[in-house]
Amino acid sequence: MALYHDLYRLNTSITGWHVRVKMLRIFQVSTFSLGKSLGLILVDEKGEKVEAFVDKAYANYYLEFLEEDSWYTIMKFKVFLNNGPIKLTKSLFNIGFLNDSIVKDCDLLNDCFYATFTPFGAILNGTTDHSYLIELVGYVVKAGELTYVDPQPIELSGYRLSFVLKDKE
């Protein structure tokens, strides 16, 4: 029986990680410095989420066979501090795929959704943690236009999209 590391144990001082994760989200990321790379949101069976990145050299390869809502085992990857300007998870670390990373299909562990929704009330009263993106259920009742407000074209914080959400209830 194979042993897997829980995502909450990830840190930069250890190598030889072996994790079993569900692929929650797969998305392409375009930046001026890195080109088109691949972003992933992974979750383990305990519900711990982590963001992962695949360099542009390997993005198309992984895009061919990775599927959202499927389970995989991953070995031979690098662990980085999660210190980017936009954090997609509250994990302190990110995973970076290497040229010799090993990703294999594994049996379905469960069909859990693994969402951690933030209540509207917590947003309205200002008690949400602003250090990472939150998950929210509601619907858009009004959306403005994407507006560029920063003179630095590389700054992601320079874009604004105003919208009004209504609680699902």
From TrEMBL:
CDD domains xrefs: RPA1_DBD_A_like
InterPro entries: NA-bd_OB-fold, RFA1B/D_OB_1st
Domain of life of the source: Eukaryota
Coiled-coil ranges (or none): none
Listed Gene3D superfamilies: Nucleic acid-binding proteins
Residue ranges constituting the Replication protein A 70 kDa DNA-binding subunit B/D first OB fold domain according to the UniProt record: 4-106
One Pfam match: DUF223
Protein name: Replication protein A 70 kDa DNA-binding subunit B/D first OB fold domain-containing protein
Organism: Cardamine amara subsp. amara
